[in-house]
């Protein structure tokens, strides 16, 4: 830190109020100043704050600074500085308790830090930052705190208790009795056999029908008598009208209905 301050003061004295300087004078001072800054950044030196009045509150922690300039640089980007400190602490776990960063590494302890190996190339699982876990929790309180001690076999009736005692006493005198006859063992092994239906079928044709009698009815005498029999008209009048008329009435053929029945 002293080397860095000396190089910075040398550069301020060289430049002063000048607006331009030769490169041969300025460049060597810049190179020395950058080398001192690299050494300081590599060593990560802790500076003691001269006054506790220069402090800032960030992420539930108070940070104290050497001067006002350091405070202004920190307030410009506080997350970057805090993250850089955590990166350094991961590589050097012994600084956890020195810088009071137990909240950032909740699973670490002095015993676990003592058991760490000398291998610094990897980050130990205990020192790795853990993600914030959120869970949903709920509680339920019963309305009445009443203990339920129910005996399902409880009986208050004296006579019911007596009946139960008699049943239990009778069970002691019970025994299982079984009998077997000569043919009783065949009852469980009964077999039946039937003739299965055959697949062959036959069919015989039968002619069925009805043969009723046929009846034909004729009307006879509608066309008169046959041609060989000639009769006089009933409307002819002659002298013997009365006697001739009686004879004609006897010879007149009247119409008749004739029915014939045929068995087919």
Automatic annotation (TrEMBL):
Residues 227-251 are annotated as: Disordered. It comes from the Eukaryota. Keywords: Cell projection, Cilium, Cilium biogenesis/degradation, Cytoplasm, Cytoskeleton. InterPro entries: FAP206. GO terms for biological process: cell projection organization; regulation of cilium beat frequency. It holds the Pfam family FAP206. One of its GO terms (cellular component) is axoneme. Its main location: cytoplasm. Transmembrane segments: none annotated. It is found in: Cytoplasm, Cytoskeleton, Cilium axoneme. The keyword Transcription does not apply. Belongs to the CFAP206 family. This is Cilia- and flagella-associated protein 206. The lineage of its organism: Eukaryota, Sar, Stramenopiles, Oomycota, Saprolegniomycetes.
């Amino acid at each position: 830190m002293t080397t860095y301050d000396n190089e910075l003061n040398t550069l301020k004295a060289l430049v002063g109020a000048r607006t331009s300087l030769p490169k041969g004078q300025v460049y060597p001072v810049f190179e020395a100043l950058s080398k001192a800054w690299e050494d300081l950044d590599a060593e990560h030196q802790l500076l003691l704050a001269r006054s506790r009045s220069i402090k800032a509150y960030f992420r539930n922690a108070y940070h104290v600074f050497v001067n006002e300039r350091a405070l202004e640089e920190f307030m410009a980007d506080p997350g970057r500085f805090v993250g850089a400190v955590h990166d350094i602490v991961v590589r050097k776990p012994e600084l956890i308790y020195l810088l009071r960063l137990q909240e950032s590494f909740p699973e670490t302890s002095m015993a676990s830090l003592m058991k760490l190996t000398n291998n610094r190339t990897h980050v130990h699982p205990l020192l790795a930052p853990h993600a914030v876990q959120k869970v949903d929790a709920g509680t339920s309180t019963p309305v009445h705190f009443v203990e339920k001690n129910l005996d399902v076999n409880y009986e208050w009736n004296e006579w019911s208790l007596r009946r139960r005692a008699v049943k239990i006493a009778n069970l002691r005198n019970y025994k299982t009795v079984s009998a077997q006859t000569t043919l009783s063992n065949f009852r469980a092994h009964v077999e039946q056999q039937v003739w299965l239906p055959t697949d062959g079928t036959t069919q015989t044709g039968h002619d069925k029908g009805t043969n009723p009698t046929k009846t034909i009815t004729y009307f006879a005498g509608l066309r008169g008598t046959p041609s060989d029999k000639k009769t006089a008209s009933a409307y002819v009048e002659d002298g013997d009208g009365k006697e001739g008329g009686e004879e004609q009435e006897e010879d007149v053929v009247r119409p008749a209905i004739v029915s014939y029945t045929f068995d087919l």
